[in-house]
Amino acid sequence: MILDLSGLFPDSVRPRKAESAGRGTERKYTVKLDTDTLDLGRVSYPIADKKPIDLYVSRSGKSGIHIEGEASLTLVMPCDRCLDETRQMLSFKLDRDIDFEDKDGEEDMSFVEGYSVDVDGLVFPEIVLNLPMKVLCCEDCKGICRVCGTNLNREKCGCDTFVPDPRMAAINDIFSKFSNK
Question: 102 by DSSP, 3-state: which?
Fold first, then answer.
């Protein structure tokens, strides 16, 4: 969704007031994300639920704004152990200063064009920063069998999953030499 913020800035008829203005009155905008997936290049996650975002926008100096808000959405992601789909709720706060005339800043401002702000572009980096490090369907997820790939949360497979300790390899070699004689 494109948010037009040109109404926050007075016409160039009164430049002195605009220059001396600090934080101005705050306006509330209720916006909704346009995208239905979070596309990260190699992987994309569907957005199962997205609540409208209340953004509070106020003037900040001559050509800047300050945006605050809180977003909440639910992503469908695979469990890191068993690969079953699980819903992960993300909630995060938005707090950003944007200067419309500062084109040389080091910050990525690809979501700003003129006095318009692309809300999806504003929110996307915050979603990525708030992705969970480990996605689990439940705390005690058993994962999948390394031998046959069965989901161990649903059934037991009976495969031999014994992994010998590699530190004991030298001793096992000695025992195998004696057992072959």
Answer: coil
* % residues pLDDT > 70 (the chain): 87
Burial class of residue 24 in the structure, from the number of CB atoms within 10 Å of its CB (0-12 exposed, 13-18 middle, 19+ buried):
middle
The pLDDT of residue 134 is 95
Contacts with 103 (C-beta within 8 Å, 6 or more apart), sequence order: 109
- Among 32-41, 49-58, 160-169, whose mean pLDDT is lowest? 160-169
User: What tokens does 21 get?
Assistant: 């203005």
Q: How far apart are CA 117 and CA 112, in angstroms?
A: 5
- Enter the tokens of residue 101: 């005339």
Q: What is the number of alpha carbons within 13 Å of residue 166 lying toward its C-beta?
A: 0
